[in-house]
Amino acid sequence: MLRVEGLGKSYNDFVAIGDITAEFAAGKFTCIVGPSGCGKTTLLKCLSGLLAPSKGRVLLNGKPITEPPESMALVFQDYSRSLYPWMTVRENVAFPLRKKRLAASDRDERIEEALASVGLADAMDKYPWQLSGGMQQRTAIARAIAYKPEILLMDEPFASVDAQTRSDLEDLMLRLRARYNMTIVFVTHDIDESVYLGDHIVVLGSRPTTVKETLNVPLAHPRDQITTKSEPQFLELRSHVYTQIMRTNTAQTA
Amino acid sequence: MKFNRRQLLNLALELAVPAALITAYAVWAAPRNDIYFPPLQVILSAFVEDWLGAKVTADIWPSLRRLLLGFFIASILAIAIGLVLGTSRRARIATAPLVDFFRSLPPPALLPLTLLVLGVDDTAKVALIGLVCFFPVLLNTMAGVGGIDPLLRETARMYGIPLRDRILHVLIPGAMPSIFAGLRTSLSLAVIMMVISEFVAATNGVGYSIWRARRSFDIADMWAGIILLGILGILLNTILLLVEARLLAWHRGSRAAASRN
Fold first, then answer.
1. Chain A residues with CB inside 8 Å of B174's CB?
2. For a Cys staple, A205 with which of A124, A195, A248, B75, CB 3.0–4.6 Å?
């Protein structure tokens, strides 16, 4: 289980995160949603061990995280900059597996399965820059899945793709979630996305950031872009989160 | 290979200008009988006689050997040290004065010293050629490592990529476009340094041949040597460009893709 306790992060005088305490239940899909500029990416970098918090701590199964743990993978927002342009899609997915010293057949199977599950079986020998943005992000997701992490962190992964690709990728995440038993922490500024994807939602306020509310999403699985998004419960949750976030924004401007 | 019309036109243009210049020289020099500017066919026959015979092994090969040894040894060292300095801020700060001093020093200034210390044999020449090649590659490797997208390095850190793989598969390929810019500079400097060192102290080599031809007032031979140097320079550079085109195909592709978006 992943937990943050009294986490704060400041850069000199700039307080990015005030005080965050939250828990990310094992095997659950937790969305972190908040107004833009509220330090969501900073929080995720602290969770991943890439960034050391200024105060508080991040605990994985009770042990504090200081370096990126073996059991974690991270999908960045900027897919075009997180894939290695000198490696093919297959090589990109294979790269983190090198240190695992898997048998060649086992490794190839993992790579092929991961690429097939994101619908990229035919693009394995292409270079990332030969692919569309959505396909590049699928490659990054396949790389994370082939790694078989216990915890998958995602930093606004669909923020820079078009709307159609975005809903495709959202559905892909739901399928992957059902298929692999991972803890997923998904940062987004899109309220609909957080309600549609999450089992839990952590709503953040604006800077200095604190947790405004933690919600459960009781929507049934499997979810569907059209029917789920028109359920009264979905609409209710959506406007609830919306109000929470708008309130922080008005409080900030007032 | 298939050429389209524009490529053919470009190729024709590329060949036409030197051809025109050579013709102009031939027309200009033929009637003058100037000792310093001999007629074209005299230079050409000197070239054929000198450089397409025994001198290939007697002079061209020793020159090339010095040049390539200096270039390769220096490049490998410079890339290795550049990777360390490019990654470690502390190492960079510690070596900055040293690097700045040596790169500002014109390498020919070290010629007398290396001749004294290392003698007149090939070691001194290889060392000097290596010295000129070292700094462009070093500085470009450092810049290349520094210019690798931080997100690519964070990705490597996130997945716990071991140091060896990080160096071989992240740092070196990431810095490669910049390293090649350094290699191109170095290669042309290497040719310069080879010639200078052979002017001063050598018993064979292309530079030595030019110098000897000058001393014996064999002007056509001197011209032939100069032409050979030009051709060697073009050949070496072409080979380097071909290697680069092969190794950095991804770089051209990704840049082209980036400019389309």
1. 86
2. A248
Q: B77: distance to nearest CA of chain A, Å?
A: 23
The string of DSSP codes covering A224-251 is -TTHHHHSHHHHHHHHHHHHHHHHHHHH
Least confident residue range of A62-66, B115-119, B152-156, B197-201: B115-119
Top residue of B148, B159, B161 to mutate, by most chain A CBs within 10 Å, is B159
**Residue with the larger pLDDT of the pair B220 and B69:** B69
Give kind and range of the element (H or E) at residue B55: helix B55-55
Question: Residues of A numbered 174-233 whose beta carbons fall under 8 angstroms of chain B's beta carbons: which are they?
Answer: none
Length of chain B: 261
- Which sequence spans correspond to the domains of chain B? 42-255
- Where in the sequence is the domain holding A93, given as residue range(s)? 2-251
**What would the pLDDT profile of A199-231 be if each residue is shown by its tens digit?**
999 998 887 888 888 888 888 888 888 888 888
Q: B42-255: which CATH architecture?
A: Orthogonal Bundle (1.10)
Domain harbouring A171, CATH code:
3.40.50.300
Q: How many domains, in total, are found in chain A?
A: 1
Q: What is the pLDDT of residue A254?
A: 43
Of chain A residues 120-149, which have a CB less than 8 A from chain B? Answer: 127-130, 147
